[in-house]
Design a protein that fits this description.
With 549 residues, this protein is an alpha/beta fold. It has two domains: 266 residues, 4-Layer Sandwich (Nitrilase/N-carbamoyl-D-aminoacid amidohydrolase); 196 residues, HUPs (Rossmann fold, 3-Layer(aba) Sandwich), CATH 3.40.50. It is 37% helix and 18% strand. It contains 16 helices and 20 strands. The strands form four sheets. Strands 5-4-3-2-1-14-15 form a seven-stranded mixed β-sheet. Strand 3 and strand 4 form a beta hairpin.
């Protein structure tokens, strides 16, 4: 069977637009001689639709667009496999299903409902869908096919030491006569995820001795970035076709001859993170109906990286950098920011905050009632910069991109309603040490646009004379190791101290900072997930709570 893998970028809620894209790609698949074309999980609605599923009209329109897709692809003469939100006919439980359909001859020939509904990390499908109870094999182009929806193919007891579910839908379908495994997915990216998928499905191919077709969504939807990286494997688990990472693609695989298309997948994981951030930024801006962005350029490594990512995402003509020097800004801050803007070819404006800052203190000092100035007065500067950017955003209709990294957000080294102001937190899931690696990639792609001085200067918020981040925090190489073990791996302080060799007192101090700053993180702009555990929808801790490590 010659099969086409239709890796598309869907927009949540744009049902008609998503179907139009599938019709267009189905025509290309037919022209390439495919007997079937396979699209991702919930391709009609986009993933994740979240509470849109609670709207009866949304479910009805999903069913209607499925019928339209069947009708408009009928003359092409090939089978179409896609995901959609279906209407449940059960008298109990949820009224919607996460389903796959096989279309042909203008009709819906087959429906398969997802059985295993993930409810962990960023997933919350049990909130919305009724799980399938039974499944069956279906013939496509004369071949018995085991058709699964994402999680249903991720529960191989031979692969996982501890499984989340008792059922293994793939095993059931293969026992039922399936000779090809097709898995449609909306699997978000994080570092290492692409290799993990290959291992899982290669193991399944070898175990059951069947070819595997894996099709994944691509594109950014809110905080999630989907990398695509669809593939087909032969029965020995060898990859015979693969789609590009982080872009739409259509690839063909012949499951009989073991031949297929091979497109670039970005072997270097840091390069993959860079592409994920560009794609997530572009799609968030575009799908929220913005075209231009604003960035506060401080001359530091974080804002410099965000500026380059923004240029790659929306074009230099749509990016404006704003320098906002204050009373404690160093000379090199404005100089480095201007040099970056000139190298990138973006618009650069300077809006000093000195006058506003002095006026604010003039008003606030009598209210404070005397006493030494401290953090409250320092943070006025950050809030004036936030005010400036958000006012320009309001004036010009441009989205503000925040520039804080994961390390800062973790321990609260950021100012509410100040540097946290904005519509998208581009690097909020990027640890500071990784920021430097990504900035080096940015410079390879943009002829060293980020000045070398930006890499060499000590990180500083510049809210008081000669301030350095290390006045309040350990070095980022130390901080990031502790944060990774606590935030991503949920390790105990004693374990972290023992395995890293760092003082237990330091580990406990930093973990306490993480726990106490949940209130800040829950008021932050949405951020793009690129690690296994990001702050946001995948990490849900109460704000008002007393538990501590």
């Amino acid at each position: 069977m010659r099969i086409a893998l239709g890796q598309i970028n869907t927009t949540v809620g744009d049902l008609a637009g998503n179907v139009d894209r599938m019709i267009q790609m189905t025509r290309q698949a037919a022209a390439g001689g495919a007997a079937a074309v396979v699209f991702p999980e919930l391709a009609i609605t986009g993933y994740p639709p979240r509470d849109l599923v609670e709207k009866p009209s949304f479910v009805e329109r999903s069913e209607q667009e499925l019928i339209r897709l069947a009708a408009e692809t009928a003359p092409l003469g090939l089978a179409v496999v896609c995901g959609f939100v279906g209407s449940s006919d059960s008298s109990t439980g949820k009224s919607a299903t996460n389903s796959a359909a096989v279309l042909g001859g203008g009709r819906v020939l087959f429906r398969q409902t997802k059985i295993l509904l993930p409810t962990y990390d960023v997933f919350d499908e049990a909130r919305y869908f009724r799980p399938g109870e039974s499944q069956s094999v279906l013939p496509i182009a004369g071949t018995p096919v085991a058709l699964t929806v994402c999680e249903d193919a991720w529960n191989d007891k031979q692969f996982w030491e501890r499984r989340l579910y008792t059922r293994d839908p793939v095993e059931e379908l293969i026992r039922g006569g399936g000779r090809v495994l097709i898995s449609i997915n909306a699997s978000p990216y994080h570092m290492g995820k692409r290799a993990l998928r290959r291992h899982i499905f290669s193991a399944a191919a070898r175990r059951y001795r069947v070819p595997v077709v894996y099709v994944n969504q691509v594109g950014g939807n809110d905080s999630l970035v989907f990398d695509g990286t669809s593939f087909a494997m032969d029965a020995a688990g060898n990859t015979i076709a693969c789609a590009r990472s982080f872009s739409e693609d259509l690839v063909f695989a012949d499951l009989e001859t073991g031949q297929g298309d091979g497109h670039e997948n970005l072997a270097d994981e840091c390069e993959a993170v860079y592409e994920a951030l560009v794609l997530g930024t572009r799609d968030y801006i575009r799908k929220c109906n913005f075209s231009r962005v604003l960035i506060g350029l401080s001359g530091g490594i974080d804002s410099s990286l965000v500026a380059v990512l923004a240029v790659d995402a929306v074009g230099k003509e749509n990016v404006t950098g704003v320098g906002m020097p204050g009373p404690f800004s160093s000379d090199h801050s404005l100089r480095d920011a201007r040099a970056l803007a000139e190298a990138l070819g973006i618009r650069f404006l300077v809006a000093p905050i000195d006058g506003m800052y002095e006026k604010c203190l003039e008003v606030l000092d009598p209210v404070f009632g005397g006493g030494p100035r401290g953090v409250a007065e320092e943070n006025v500067q950050a809030r004036l910069r936030g005010l400036t950017l958000m006012t320009l955003s309001n004036k010009w209709g441009a989205m503000v991109l925040t520039t804080g990294n994961k390390s800062e957000l973790a321990v609260g080294y950021c100012t509410l309603y100040g540097d946290m102001c904005g519509g998208l937190a581009v690097i909020s899931d990027v640890p500071k040490t990784l920021v430097y690696d990504l900035a080096r990639i940015a410079n390879r792609r943009h002829a060293n646009a980020i000045p070398q001085a930006v890499f060499e200067k000590p990180p500083s918020a510049e809210l008081r004379p000669n301030q350095k981040d290390t006045d309040s925090l350990p070095g980022y190489d130390v901080l990031d190791r502790i944060l990774r073990e606590y935030v991503e791996n949920y390790r105990r302080p004693s374990e972290i101290a023992r395995e890293t060799g760092f003082p237990l007192e330091l580990v406990r101090e930093l973990i306490t900072k993480v726990d106490r700053n949940e209130y800040k993180r829950q008021q932050a702009a949405p951020g793009l997930k690129v690690t296994s555990k990001a702050f946001g929808i995948g990490r849900r801790f109460p704000i008002a709570q007393k538990y501590t490590e």
